[in-house]
Amino acid sequence: MNFSFLLVAALTLAGALAAMALRNLVHCVLALVVGFVGLAAIYLQLGAQFVGLAQIFVYAGAVAILAAFVILLTQGVEHRTRPAAAMDWAVGALLACGVFAVLAWAVVRGVAHLPIAAPPSNAGVHAIGDAMLHRFVLPLEVAGLLLTVALIGAVLLAMRDGEAGA
Amino acid sequence: MNPLTGYLLLAALLFSIGLAGVLTRRSAILMLVGMELMLNAANLNLIAFWRYGPNPAAMTGVLFALFSIGVAAAEAAVGLGLLVAVARRVRTTDVDQMDAMRG
C-alpha cells in the first residue's frame, strides 16, 4: 500500500464523487474525466499499460466527450431537475453504503490470506496482441461487430424523424 | 497486508459511488455516468485479479477488461443516442418526468 497508490486512489475517488454530486452537468462530466484518468493511472501501476491507454482513449476521450455533447445537444430542454427529495436521497445513500459494507466485508475476509503473487513477466502489447489474435479471435470479431451495429444504431436513434432518407 | 485488498476496496468504493449516483440523481445523463462508474469498478477488479492472480501469463483478465471497455463504449453510445431522441420528444432529461409510454 504505497504512497502513489493512495494519492491516485484519492484523486480517482474525488473525481467520481464530484461527478455524482456536482449540480452543473458539464462540471460533472469534467470531474468524471478526472476520475477516469486516475483509474488509468491505477491500471498503469498494476502493469496493464495497454488497458490504461484504452481507458484514456475510450473513457476520458470518447465516452466523456459523448456525454458532454449530449448535454449540449439537449441544452434547450429542461436540465434544472429538482433536487431529489430528502427521502429518496437518504434511501439511495443508505443502499449504496450497505452495498459497500457487504463488498468490503467480503474483500477483507476473503483476500487477506491469499498468497501475494509475483508480477507477470510479459504484459506488453505483444502478449496482448498474441492472445487477441489467437485465443480470443472470435470475441474480438464479435466485439467489432457489436461496436459497428451499436454506433450505426446510435446514429439512427439520435437522427431526427424524416431525416433518414429511407 | 495483501496489496490486492487496496485495489478491491477502491473498486468497491467506486461501485458504491456510482450506485448512489444512479439511485439519487434524477438526470438521465448522470444516471448513465453512474453506470459507467460501476462498469469501471468491475474493470478495476478484473485487472487487479489478473495482476495478483495465479496465472497472469494467460492474459485473460486484461483481455476481459478490454472487451468490457468495448461493450461499455457501445452501451454508452446507444444509451446517449436514446437519451437525445427521448429528450427531443418529452423536452426534459429528468427521469421522474419521463412517465408516459407515448411521448
Structure description:
Chain A is an all-alpha fold and 166 residues long. Chain A contains 6 helices and no strands. Chain A is globular, with a radius of gyration of 21 Å. In chain B, helix 2 (28-52) runs antiparallel to helix 3 (60-90). The model of chain B has no long low-confidence stretch (mean pLDDT 88). The N and C termini of chain B lie far apart (55 Å). Chain B has helices spanning 3-24, 28-52, 60-90. At the A-B interface, helix 1, helix 2, helix 3, helix 4 and helix 5 of A face helix 1, helix 2 and helix 3 of B.
Shape of chain A: globular
Largest interface: A-B, 87 and 75 residues
The biggest beta sheet of chain A reads: none
How much of the sequence of chain A is in beta strands? Answer: under 5%
Task: Enumerate how many helices of chain B there are, as a single number.
Answer: 3
Spans of chain B with pLDDT under 50 lasting ≥5 residues? Answer: none
Radius of gyration of chain B: 17 Å
Number of E-state strands of chain A: 0
How far do the termini of chain A sit from each other? 59 Å
Shape annotation of chain B: elongated
Q: Helicity of chain B, in percent? A: over 70%
Secondary structure blueprint with pairings:
The complex is a heterodimer of chains A (166) and B (103).
Chain A: H1 3-21, H2 25-45, H3 49-73, H4 86-111, H5 125-133, H6 137-158
Chain B: H1 3-24, H2 28-52, H3 60-90
Helix pairs in contact in B: 1-2, 2-3
